[in-house]
Amino acid sequence: MTMTTSTTTTAATPVAPSRGALRPLGLDQVQITGGFWGERQAVNAAVTLAHIEGWMEREGWIGNFDAAATGTLGAGQAGREFSDSEVYKLLEAMAWEIGRTHDGDLDARFTALVARIAAAQEPDGYLNTQFGRPGQRPRYSDLEMGHELYCYGHLFQATVARARTAPGAGDGLLELARRAADHVTDTFGPDGIASVCGHPEIEVALAELGRETGERRYLDQAALFVDRRGHGVLRDIEWGRAYFQDDLPVRETTVLGGHAVRANYLAAGAVDVAVETGDDELLRALVVQWENTVARRTYVTGGQGSHHTDEAFGEDWVLPPDRAYSETCAGVGSVMFAWRLLLAQGLPRYADLVERTLYNVVATSPSHAGDAFFYTNTLHQRQPGTAAPTDVASPRASSSLRAPWFAVSCCPPNVARTLASLAAYVATTDDDGLQVHQYAPARIRTALPDGRRVEVDIETGYPHDGLVRVRVATSQERPWTLTLRVPAWAKGATLVVPDDADPRPADPGTVSVTRRFSAGDVIDLHLPLAPRVLHPDPRIDALRGCVAVERGPQVLCLESVDLDGAGLGTDVGEVRIDLGAGLREVAGRTRAAFVALPALEAAWPYGDANDAGKPATGGLDSPRTAEVPLTAYHDWANRGPSTMRVWIPMV
Amino acid sequence: MTMTTSTTTTAATPVAPSRGALRPLGLDQVQITGGFWGERQAVNAAVTLAHIEGWMEREGWIGNFDAAATGTLGAGQAGREFSDSEVYKLLEAMAWEIGRTHDGDLDARFTALVARIAAAQEPDGYLNTQFGRPGQRPRYSDLEMGHELYCYGHLFQATVARARTAPGAGDGLLELARRAADHVTDTFGPDGIASVCGHPEIEVALAELGRETGERRYLDQAALFVDRRGHGVLRDIEWGRAYFQDDLPVRETTVLGGHAVRANYLAAGAVDVAVETGDDELLRALVVQWENTVARRTYVTGGQGSHHTDEAFGEDWVLPPDRAYSETCAGVGSVMFAWRLLLAQGLPRYADLVERTLYNVVATSPSHAGDAFFYTNTLHQRQPGTAAPTDVASPRASSSLRAPWFAVSCCPPNVARTLASLAAYVATTDDDGLQVHQYAPARIRTALPDGRRVEVDIETGYPHDGLVRVRVATSQERPWTLTLRVPAWAKGATLVVPDDADPRPADPGTVSVTRRFSAGDVIDLHLPLAPRVLHPDPRIDALRGCVAVERGPQVLCLESVDLDGAGLGTDVGEVRIDLGAGLREVAGRTRAAFVALPALEAAWPYGDANDAGKPATGGLDSPRTAEVPLTAYHDWANRGPSTMRVWIPMV
Questions:
Q1: Taking burial as the number of CB atoms within 10 A of a residue's CB, which of A149, A514, B263, B604 is the most buried?
Q2: From A491, which residue of chain B is nearest by alpha-carbon distance?
Q3: CB distance A542–B320 less than 8 Å?
Q4: Average pLDDT of the residues in A399-404
């Protein structure tokens, strides 16, 4: 790995490593100007942030801080152990949004919220509304499930977002966070409590706060937390210490396991530690974990976690579509982990997973209106759900319709902060030029360390259209290199460069052009968007005999509202896909041929090949067949209760 | 349905309906004299009962009663909300065992245990060590999860067992139980608390205590509990009221759902209520529930429950083998439900499920030595487990090796009471003769209502051998009818009757012989035990492309210790069964041909048909093939840590 050393001021980006293959660009350098993600950012700004703030006021999670400040908080605090963290995630989302749009009203709300939080901080820097007061449990008495350090983590990430988008804002957040971070390093340092938090997050956050403030001891504390974990420092629980990754040291772990959000947050923080300390052994271990997790424990959507019980990864190849947990937050965590590896190593495979996860997990969670969310993201809905209540927090994470709020509501603010900061994941630079990783209409204005201006605009209808046009905005005397990612699925992509007679082939990976760019130069990347049939690895038992369909970066699914429209009933479990007929694109939608199963009746569902339980499609006299449009998975359940499946059995 | 009215004294049987198609025989009329079940009864008597008693003493669950009696019990009581019930289940198991073997030492232990329990009963009949004292929660303050009525239920079942196996024993248990039952009817009667217990069990127990004592109000209370449930009388919880069947009234329910043990216990009690009150509408609803549950929500083992999260049934067709929960107690509950329907309706399908569940769930739980147990019964073990600790209660129900004890240890005493009372499930009578439902070496001595003696001995090596010989012990001038069940899988069975030149075909269902039997008459039922390949209903997504193998009533499985012995590695996930080679029986074991998967490597497990993720057996140049013996599922994990699967993908 070649490491470049950052020489510029920290950009407005969530992650700013001091070295690595690629250098991130911030919201000050990249703006998404429309399209798929631009629309979602607009809804996030217009609806979601206020929706979240409203629910947190209503549920009393923000009010906890007021009560703490006035000394009236006791055993009756609202919310769960981690409710403070949700407020901090909202704060982070607001900070990115202010950095993106410079919304003055939002800035005022942000500042007011910081003031309420600051009033609750104790003189020694401790800040948590759930512990330490009369009637509450003592501080740090439940490191396994108490989430106190986890909450600080989200506080620090919000602080970094604010410091990088509004330096010198004067709202006091940075000072508040430093007091809290000093308290953490004092309390959990080498001579302090020799343990970790049951929910990793403090690691990734302390590392970034260290980067932002230059405080080495924050980074050292993050490294200490990473090293301590895995030695059984936490109490054993019913699901075992693997739940919070305390079963095996990070550097001895070969695949992510246990609670999927915890695993990804920890891995992301460990990458930060490895990069900042030059710990290549640790980094190699994390790369292996990522590779094995992606190869054996990740859904086609990029979703991770196949156990409802403990919100955890299953063993290798345990990827049941109908019991997929695939928590939205695990998707966010996976983006965090992959993005850090991309910055460290520069390999396009990391950006491939980021793209897959953004389109098929992060974009799936919020409703089109932006006021309801999936917590889990099943890949097979067997029963049409009932509409989630709009006026009370939903206790159940498995509803098939998006709910406005959950008793555990980590996912909505996690989506909000990701969408608001999304421009930071679009492109990077190195010493030679610009790398574009994610395709959206965008404006990019930055400079290389030696001063060469790199200024381009991206025009594209992606992911609906496969043309990505990079238009150079500023002429530059000296050459620089434009590098574009070609997704692994984009076989047959081509690049058209000015003055070239013919398109160049652009194989999956990256394609680069080095030249003296002039303003107005146009580079066109053509990504083939013909729908593709996917077969699963034969070791995934739950998918045997099934295929999925993708179009570009979007996983498609069969939704019963479309099935019903084609006269094939309302149950996606009762049809089979007929690949012999191929796939067709009609009016922007991919269509496939489906055959209805014959009516089956059996008193006992296991029998010999002549019993009713046999694979029975062969016995159908006049099979009902129809062409049915597929739906982008992220769009499902926006048309009322439905059944749905991503993996479809073949005839 | 033809109903017969019981005219004899209540037999020593767990269920004694006042009417129904069949009349149960008790331990005083049927003895299992050896064979598969005889061996398990012997281990249960010699090892398991003392093992359970020892652990309950050690864990303080029995000591809770002593502390309650001396007034020293407070917030520090041992065990969970339901620990009293485990002591009662042990009591029930002991009562049946005393009835079976008349073991004087065991009788003395039983009587001593009753005395300790009796000392803890409060003056008004209330009895529970977990509620109502200073430092404890108030009585009936948590009907959802408190299990107080559930505990009474097991107390009443133990009482019935004792009353029917040792009438007039003078240990005070019956009087104790009546005081408790009177307290329950006073407290929860028509004018009392208008609710139910979060864990059904009081219903089935009160109905039986009513049958035993003749107290109509116990039965009325059971009926009231059945009718109350399903109207949202319990508080909603994260998993929804379906968890404790409070989402829909019993008579409107069409399939079992929610917590699988709760669902079966409730259904069993509802059958009792329906039979005793002549409520044919309720009985019809329960028959439909049973039919749909068996057709769509039951594992091939008879196991029920496919969610780890809430120990619950999944939706129709959700039967993942690798995440099967299939709690041992749910198997016991299913036997209870099916047995009551058999007595009510007389149809052999109910006895078929009882047999399947006994061999493949109940017999699977205990180790050969009888001192360790499965709580859950997975059908696919992917990783060899680590040995369960022998000296501490295991917190995890999903260990692949049987554990000596669990923090929640409902299953071991449930198995023990079932094994000790097993003779009661072997045979029944009606006005015309004897019906034999389960095949084991047995001695049956009973009489029909009109005085005809029905006395036979059963000789069989079943399930290892298919010959079931019924030898008549007593001549009888008047004819009577011998009816033998022919399991649904036993196609080609034959019956040989004295004086007949040729065997008679005996189609699945039942076969009957009516004659003037003479002592020494021999009737031979030949059940074909050739191994059978089973295909799953195509709607069970998790089993697509797989088959299972059965031999007689036993489900077989592939265990890695055998795979390894054949040179095919240690991972049952890496082989496919080749049905073209057929199945062979060698030295009493069924053998099948297996092919090892080629080595597969893929960075991403989803791709087109040419990628590494494709179904790849076709690409194998020189496939490794070997014949491997299969193992009876109930025998698995008795040879050290192993991987195992019941459903095996086909080449």
A1: B263
A2: B608
A3: yes
A4: 83
3-state SS of A105-174 is HHHHHHHHHHHHHHCCCCCCCCCCCCECCCCCECCCCCCCCCCHHHHHHHHHHHHHHHHHHCCCCCCCHH
Measured between beta carbons, which residues in chain B are less than 8 angstroms from residue A323?
307, 314, 318, 320, 323
Q: What is the torsional sign of CA B237, B243, B244, B245?
A: positive
Of residues A525, A534, A517, the one with CA closest to residue A647:
A534
Q: Which of A291, A308, A539 lies at the smallest CB-CB distance from B573? A: A539
> Is the model's pLDDT at A579 over the cut of 60?
yes
Q: What is the chain A residue with the closest CA to B613?
A: A537
Specify the pLDDT at position A617.
Answer: 45
Q: Which residue in this structure is represented by tokens 């992650």?
A: A15
Using the structure block, give the residue that is written with the tokens 């077969």: A535
The predicted-structure confidence for A146-162, as pLDDT tens digits, reads as follows 999 999 999 999 999 99
Q: Is the ipTM of this complex over 0.90?
A: yes
The pLDDT value given to residue B397: 61
What CA–CA distance (Å, rounded) separates A474 from B518? 110
Chain B residues inside the 8 Å CB shell of A255: none
A259: contact with B, CB 8 A cutoff: no
pLDDT tens for each residue of A331-342: 999 999 999 999
Q: Where are the alpha helices (DSSP H) in B26-125?
A: 35-43, 49-59, 63-69, 83-101, 104-118
Structure tokens at A441: 């209409």
Strands of B453-460's sheet in order across: B30-32, B442-447, B453-460, B467-472, B522-526, B494-496, B504-505
Nearest to A646 by CA among A580, A586, A592: A592
Contact at CB, A608 and B542, closer than 8 angstroms: no
- DSSP secondary structure of B575-632: EEEEEEEEEEEETTEEEEEEEEPPP---SSSEE-TTSTTS--GGG-SS--EEEEE-EE
- DSSP state, residue A288: H
**Residues A207-244: tens digit of each pLDDT:** 999 999 999 999 999 999 999 999 999 999 988 999 99
Peptide bond into B463 cis (omega under 30): yes
Percent of chain A past pLDDT 70, that is, above it, reads 96
Strand partners, A595: A576, A625
Nearest to B534 among A548, A602, A606 (CB): A606
How many Å apart are CA A125 and CA A34, to the nearest integer?
A: 42
Contact B535 A296 (CB under 8 A): no
**The predicted structure's pLDDT at residue A285:** 98
Of B447-451, B594-598, B619-623, the least confident: B619-623
H helices of B229-279, in order, are 260-277
Q: Are strands A433-436 and A480-486 parallel, antiparallel or unpaired?
A: parallel
Please, what is the average pLDDT of chain B?
94
Residue from A70, A48, A77, A93 nearest A422 by CA: A93
Å from A51 to nearest chain B CA?
23
- Chain A partners within 8 Å of B577 (Cβ): none
